[in-house]
Design brief:
Largest sheet: 5 strands, mixed
Strand content: 5-15%
Strand order of the largest sheet: 1-2-3-5-4
Low-confidence stretches: 1-8, 267-273
Order of helices and strands: HHEEHEHEEHHHHHHHHHH
Number of helices: 14
Helix content: 55-70%
């Protein structure tokens, strides 16, 4: 019994946001379906519009991942104070949390949430559902997790064409790097800490670097590349092995038609030699 008491006690002190999310049903938040919990400060007449936006986001996840498997609990806060309690951050309008025991949550601030924010966070919980907490924590680099989420998030680039999306992300990347003068290497944004360290501009560069790399990878690999990558990892390959192996099977014609990815220094050197 003492050991069982230590675990939730430690959870609360180390990760209070997880504790609050786990006990959301006892918080006073209102839920009609035990899946989405609304702050008691949100008016009932607002539920319909918010639920419509959530459904739009679920449709994006379903389309991109060729079927939606995750079923995160959604917590819709009314202001930044509530949002900070459940997300442990005041930044942005959405965040996601996952636990080793399988629970997942998407926390939203009603004041800034939209289909892009929700789709982004739902991508994280979908990848978590398909690969598992341990694999996400130990195998999958943060730049891939965030870059994949950006493929559903149209706030920065809104281009349905795979090649066009890469070109648009390159344009954003060039802006944040001063024309490629201040490159942030992928190896430096592999961890969550590395990705979100630094100021706002540094974090934005991390996002644009991730978006450019993942959009390039999706443009030059074969169809269903993401699904194939997930299958390979679930069959025992590490992320690094599966990602590298699939890069060898890139579409040579598409690769020739696109500008070289500046984050892949060796490829750029080969082209300029």
């Amino acid at each position: 019994m003492a050991g069982l008491l230590i675990i939730p006690g430690s959870l609360f002190f180390l990760y209070p946001q997880v504790f609050y999310c786990e006990f959301i049903r006892f918080s006073g938040f209102v839920s009609i379906d035990r899946k989405t919990y609304f702050s008691p400060d949100i008016q009932l007449q607002s539920y319909k519009a918010l639920q419509k936006t959530i459904r739009q986001s679920e449709t994006r996840v379903d389309s991109f991942y060729k079927g939606k498997r995750s079923d995160p609990v959604l917590i819709v806060c009314s202001d930044s104070r509530q949002y900070q309690k459940y997300c442990n951050s005041t930044e942005g309008a959405g965040c996601s949390l996952g636990t080793p025991w399988g629970s997942s949550y998407v926390i939203l601030n009603a004041q800034g949430m939209n289909a892009d924010v929700i789709s982004h966070e739902m991508s994280h919980t979908e990848l978590l559902e398909r690969l598992g907490w341990w694999t996400i924590a130990k195998e999958v680099p943060q730049w891939f997790n965030e870059g994949t989420a950006l493929m559903l998030d149209r706030r920065f680039v809104n281009n349905p064409d795979a090649a066009g999306r890469y070109l648009d992300y390159m344009e954003e990347w060039l802006y944040y790097t001063g024309g490629g003068q201040e490159i942030l290497e992928l190896e430096n944004i592999t961890s969550i800490k590395g990705f979100f360290s630094g100021g706002q501009r540094q974090v934005m560069l991390a996002y644009m670097s991730s978006g450019m790399e993942v959009s390039y990878w999706l443009a030059v690999t074969r169809k269903n590349a993401l699904q194939n990558l997930i299958t390979r990892i679930n069959n025992g390959q590490t992320f690094a092995e599966a990602y590298a192996e699939m890069q060898k099977k890139e579409d040579a014609l598409m690769k020739k038609q696109l500008p070289a990815n500046p984050l892949r220094i060796r490829e750029v050197k080969k082209i300029t030699e």
